[in-house]
Design a protein that fits this description.
The protein is an alpha+beta fold. The protein has six helices and 23 strands. The longest helix has 51 residues. Belongs to the membrane fusion protein (MFP) (TC 8.A.1) family.
């Protein structure tokens, strides 16, 4: 934009240049002629600053109007873009999972067989063969008890048994004699009766022979009864002898099964008493070839747990080892106080690396009664309408469906209701996503159903 020069200003400038030139030519006339010219022709006031200000103001107003128009144009375009904007969303298909459910619960190892060994013979410990940690076989000698009183009782009982056997022999001899007397009495009675019938003997003699026969028969019966009494006495005494002999075998305490000595409460010279079941045991022994793993299964999974379900046992201190086992028994009924099912898993332990009393994690492969639909947890929408997922329709519009969560598995969710499997769902749905919104699906690949995992704190659950 150019500025126009006023004609009067141009003339004034020419006169000033001429006057300056004249002064330079004739310096002697500078004072008189210059003063006269300046007093004779004064220039008019200048208007350039006003014009510059007006032009600057006009330029500023024009520039502001242009910026305002640009802002309005941008806002209109933005509004149009917002109305017609189709967001690109990541999508995955909802998968149907029918694989066995993996259920991880805390457990504790227990010896398959455990025995507290008490003394059955009263006496002093004369010899001890094992100590804590000793591995023993069934029948191995653990401890020997010196019980002289018991030994003497056994010898006395055996002697009494001999006396009773001798008495039985006497009674049997009496029976034989009684039988002979009965035979003689019968012959005499028969002869006397015949003679009395023929008149050669009196009737009194016949009656006496008959009485002698009856007496001999009664004596035989008594002798036989004495034999039976003697036999009964021998049987009773034999039982006493057998009992004492059995008790004397308890002087040698042996292992009832293969196992490990886990506790020892006596030493050589200690006095022990027989039949002290409520007292202190001599030893405690555990069988560790097969271990029981005790697990408390919550009610949510108790219906699916039964004998034969496979399980894996892991010890936190041995993360590289996994021990296989199966559910062998359960209480069937749940504990009403905690709503848990007492379950035992048998685990083979031939190398003895597992020990009774360990805290372990037991993972069950629980078969599913019916398949579940699983979705990534990042697809969940939780707002005032409840829990929902955004399902992409064939026309690339969105439908929000309410769902019911069966189990939260961390990165994935198992649904009880809401989806049937195979639907395309939106991951990380935008906050302004509504029913009927258009989207541009971007598949993330097929979602594969994974085995569900669940951890339960023993004390809390």
């Amino acid at each position: 934009m150019s500025l126009l020069t006023h004609p009067h200003d141009a003339a004034s400038d020419a006169a000033e240049r001429a006057h300056a030139h004249a002064v330079e030519i004739d310096p002697l006339r500078h004072d008189t002629a210059g003063e006269a010219l300046s007093h004779a022709r004064l220039p008019p006031p200048r208007k350039r600053p006003v014009l510059v200000a007006i032009l600057a103001l006009g330029s500023a107003l024009g520039l502001g109007g242009w910026h305002h128009w640009q802002t309005y144009r941008t806002s209109v375009e933005t509004q149009e873009d917002a109305v017609s904007f189709v967001p690109t969303v990541r999508t995955v298909p909802a998968s149907e999972d029918d694989a066995p459910m993996s259920l991880t619960l805390p457990g504790q190892t227990q010896a398959f067989d455990h025995a507290d060994i008490f003394a059955r013979a009263t006496g002093y410990i004369s010899e001890r063969k094992v100590d804590i940690g000793s591995r023993v076989k069934k029948g191995d000698l653990l401890i020997r008890i010196a019980a002289p009183d018991l030994d003497q009782q056994k010898r006395q009982a055996e002697a009494q048994l001999g006396q009773l056997e001798a008495q039985l022999s006497v009674a049997q001899a009496d029976v034989e004699q009684a039988k002979a007397n009965v035979t003689l009495a019968n012959v005499t009675d028969a002869r006397t009766s015949t003679l009395a019938g023929q008149g050669w003997a009196s009737k009194q003699n016949a009656d006496q022979s008959r009485a002698q026969m009856l007496t001999a028969s009664a004596s035989l019966t008594a002798a036989e009864a004495k034999v039976k009494v003697a036999q009964a006495n021998i049987t009773a005494q034999q039982a006493t002898v057998d009992r004492l002999r059995t008790l004397t075998t308890f002087e040698n305490v042996t292992a009832p099964f293969d196992g490990i000595i886990v506790a020892r409460m006596v030493d050589v010279g200690d006095l022990v008493h027989a039949d002290s079941g409520n007292g202190t045991p001599l030893f405690s022994i555990d069988s560790s070839d097969v271990l029981r793993v005790s697990v408390q299964v919550p009610q949510s999974a108790a219906v699916s747990i039964h004998d034969g379900v496979s399980a894996s046992v892991m010890v936190p201190q041995m993360p590289e080892r996994t021990f296989k086992g199966t559910v062998s028994r359960s209480s069937v009924a749940l504990r009403s106080s905690v709503r848990t099912l007492d379950t035992e898993v048998d685990v083979a332990n031939p190398d003895g690396i597992l020990r009774p009393g360990l805290y372990v994690n037991v993972t069950f492969d629980v078969p599913r009664a019916h398949p579940f639909v699983t979705i990534p947890s990042e697809a969940l929408i939780f707002d005032a309408a409840g829990t929902q997922v955004a399902v992409v329709q064939p026309d690339d519009t969105v439908m929000l469906r309410p769902i019911t969560i069966a189990r939260d598995l961390g990165t994935r969710l198992e649904l009880r209701t809401g989806l049937k499997g195979g639907e395309t769902i939106v991951l990380n749905p935008p906050a302004d996503l509504r029913d009927g919104s258009h989207v541009a699906p971007k598949p993330e690949g097929r979602s594969e159903g994974s085995v569900a995992k669940l951890s339960v704190q023993a004390s809390a659950e």
